[in-house]
Amino acid sequence: MRIAQLAPLIESVPPATYGGIELVVSLLTEELVRRGHEVTLFASGDSTTDARLIPVVDKSLRNSEGGRVHLWHAFDYKSLIMLESMCDQFDVVHNHMGWEALPFLEELPVPVLSTNHNIIEESVSPIYWHYRRLPFVAISDSYRQRNLPDILNYVDTIYNGIDTGRYEFDEQANRTYLCFLGRLCIDKGIVEAIQIARRLNLPLKIAGKIDAADRAYFDRQVQHLLDGKQIEYVGEVDHAGKIELFRNAIAVVYPINFDEPFGLVMAEALACGVPPLALNRGAVREVLDDETAVIGDSVDELVERFGEIQRISRRQCRLRAQARFSKELMADKYESVFEELSLRNRVEAMSS
Questions:
Q1: Is 211 left (phi over 0), alpha (psi -120 to 50) or beta?
Q2: Average model confidence (pLDDT) for the chain?
Q3: Most buried among 36, 205, 234, 251, using CB within 10 Å?
Q4: Domain boundaries, the chain
Q5: How far lies 3's CA from each of 110, 157, 199, 274, 342, in Å?
Q6: Phi, psi of 95, rounded to the nearest 5 degrees
Q7: What pLDDT, on a 0 to 100 scale, did the predictor assign at position 274?
Q8: Could you read off the pLDDT of 219-263 as tens digits, one per residue?
Q9: CATH topology of domain 2-161+326-351
């Protein structure tokens, strides 16, 4: 099939460090190319891919002087204008950008699919309602149940995938600290992660980015908690740095304060044999189960039950990641949806 992948432009594909959506787009794109599909990736020019790359901007907007927040949507529309002019080259268009693309997608004469990666905010829900008949994929059943479940035309739930072969698993590692990986913001529960580490009297290594929108929160609520000894912020990390962070971790602390649509960090931790210590929000119980994590309803409960980490088989963690969250399984499911949409489009064309 001839497939167009429409990526966000904030990070490169794949991202150099943080960027969950861009990582998923990259893994899906490369796996589809490996399977013989003719894939075109609309992304920033600093992206790396075996697909045909259409560089919408020279650099990812986060790394570009022109990429200030108020210009991001303008650049996104540049992607859509380019796509519109090339649409006869594709059998299906796969949108990862979000609501901005919906008006353009409705007008395209080819099948389209939108994967909803982010929570649908109330301010944009009328836009989704207007384009509700377009096909959508949810990245978890939890997401699907919480984001316009009786309105949007969800055609499937497809979990995000990872390249499990790139996550090292060492069952005999000397694990001595807790780790936190994610944006340093209120939603991800960075302050709660620090509280848990302090109450357990364990070191905590923190890795992740600080968005401009989160800078005031970090400066006011987080910065003074970092002592560089027990509580250490190591900055943003690339894939190798992520693996090193996981390598000797007792557990990944995941005390989220919102209904996370998926939570790629949990799948990555499992692939390295690291059990998460997670609050039961969003898709946590779809990614994890009681054999691979300690899941609680409060920080107090996570602290009280921390000893249960010792009973968890790190090999079972690894096996769960391989069975449920591989890039191959993700690509299988997207291929099926693409084929179904393409077949439906041909039948409709023949009957019209």
A1: beta
A2: 93
A3: 251
A4: 2-161+326-351, 165-324
A5: 11, 20, 50, 35, 11
A6: -100, 125
A7: 97
A8: 999 999 999 999 999 999 999 999 999 999 999 999 999 999 999
A9: Rossmann fold (3.40.50)
